[in-house]
Amino acid sequence: MLDLLERYPSPAALAETSEKTLANRLTKLAPRMGKRLAAEIVQALGEQTVVVPGTQAATVVMPRLAKQLAALLQQRDEVASEVERLVHAHPLYSVLTSMPGVGVRTAARLLTEVAHKTFASAAHLAAYAGLAPVTRRSGSSIRGEHPSRRGNKVLKRTLFLSAFAALRDPISRAYYSRKIQQGKRHNQALIALARRRCDVMFAMLRDGTFYQPQTAPNA
């Protein structure tokens, strides 16, 4: 789309171009959608009856903005590639990605948040991530345990989303299902799964060992 805006910055410029030319250009960028998009653009141009004020000015500004945005997107892709290269080179990368639900991006976030820190136990790691349950009290009464609102929010979200992705794994799905059967709601069950996975991840990082299904807690 940015390529289209840069080359044809106004409806008038598009109108001067044949559907075939548009289709050929768009097909190079989006092989499966090129012809359909070209037909939709031509149809929309044919139905246009109002000229929007400022269109002429937009024809000057739009190509520049499109070019700048394309450059930023390219820079983003280059940075992402470099980050991926650095993550792959980390000695704990293969350890983390051996765990279900942990891909390149998740491993990168985990390495950023915990690899340079030392935790005395899995419970300390869970508390740092805000996954350790806290007991709410009101006067002399106890209202039960609830997820903590403290902790590293980036790490907590990463572990939560990783637990969600791990539901494709039979062991993780079985643990999640047990929590649902115990009366927990979806998010509560995922938090519980993330907490259990935190125990496993702590041992993996501490010992530098790969994920072993039999080590996954089944409580």
From TrEMBL:
<dbReference type="GO" id="GO:0006313">
    <property type="term" value="P:DNA transposition"/>
</dbReference>
<feature type="domain" description="Transposase IS116/IS110/IS902 C-terminal">
    <location>
        <begin position="94"/>
        <end position="176"/>
    </location>
</feature>
<dbReference type="InterPro" id="IPR003346">
    <property type="entry name" value="Transposase_20"/>
</dbReference>
<dbReference type="Pfam" id="PF02371">
    <property type="entry name" value="Transposase_20"/>
</dbReference>
<dbReference type="InterPro" id="IPR047650">
    <property type="entry name" value="Transpos_IS110"/>
</dbReference>
<dbReference type="GO" id="GO:0004803">
    <property type="term" value="F:transposase activity"/>
</dbReference>
<protein>
    <recommendedName>
        <fullName>Transposase IS116/IS110/IS902 C-terminal domain-containing protein</fullName>
    </recommendedName>
</protein>
<dbReference type="GO" id="GO:0003677">
    <property type="term" value="F:DNA binding"/>
</dbReference>
